[in-house]
């Protein structure tokens, strides 16, 4: 405990207040560039992925089911899993849109 008291600033606290504010600013900047900004970027990319869905796209749901989009609504999509099995999911349930290399090269 005596060690902590010895480390406490003695006298003028103007300089320590400025250094504390600079330290908090630096910590906030680090958090912003390392955590907040990448999360915002990832959220924008996900929103773009979900808004760019179109009929016929091959998708994978969050549950791991593979299928192709048979129909789209504002918030939902109808996914065809084969053998006349179609299930309606929220757009947010789509994890990945698979790209076919042969179609991309056309």
Q: Assign the CATH topology of the largest domain.
A: SH3 type barrels
The H/E string reads HHEEEEEH
Largest sheet: 5 strands, antiparallel
Number of helices: 3
Tell me the strand percentage band: 15-25%
Shape: rod-shaped
Number of strands: 5
Low-confidence stretches: none
By secondary-structure content and strand pairing, the structural class works out as alpha+beta
Whole-number total of structural domains: 2
List the topology elements:
Layout: H1 2-7, H2 14-51, E1 58-61, E2 66-72, E3 76-80, E4 86-90, E5 94-98, H3 101-104
Antiparallel strand pairs: 1-2, 1-5, 2-3, 3-4
Features:
rod-shaped; SH3 type barrels; 3 helices; 106 residues; five-stranded antiparallel sheet; alpha+beta
In short:
The chain is of the alpha+beta class and 106 residues long.
Structure explained in plain terms:
- The protein has 106 residues and is of the alpha+beta class.
- The protein has 2 domains: 15-50; 54-104, SH3 type barrels (Roll).
- The chain is built from 3 helices and 5 strands, in the order ααβββββα.
- The protein has helices spanning 2-7, 14-51, 101-104, and strands spanning 58-61, 66-72, 76-80, 86-90, 94-98.
- A 5-stranded antiparallel beta sheet has the order 4-3-2-1-5, with no helix packed on it.
- Strand 2 and strand 3 (76-80) form a beta hairpin.
- The longest helix is centred in the first third of the chain and has 38 residues, at 14-51.
- The model has no long low-confidence stretch (mean pLDDT 85).
């Amino acid at each position: 405990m005596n060690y902590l008291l010895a480390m406490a600033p003695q006298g003028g606290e103007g300089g320590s207040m400025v250094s504390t504010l600079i330290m908090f600013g630096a910590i906030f900047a680090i958090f912003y560039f390392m955590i907040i900004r990448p999360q915002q970027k990832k959220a924008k990319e996900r929103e773009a992925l979900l808004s760019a869905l179109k009929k016929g796209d091959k998708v994978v749901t969050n549950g791991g089911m593979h299928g192709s989009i048979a129909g789209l609504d504002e918030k939902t999509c109808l996914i065809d899993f084969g053998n006349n099995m179609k299930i309606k999911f929220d757009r947010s349930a789509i994890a990945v849109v698979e790209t076919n290399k042969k179609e991309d090269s056309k």
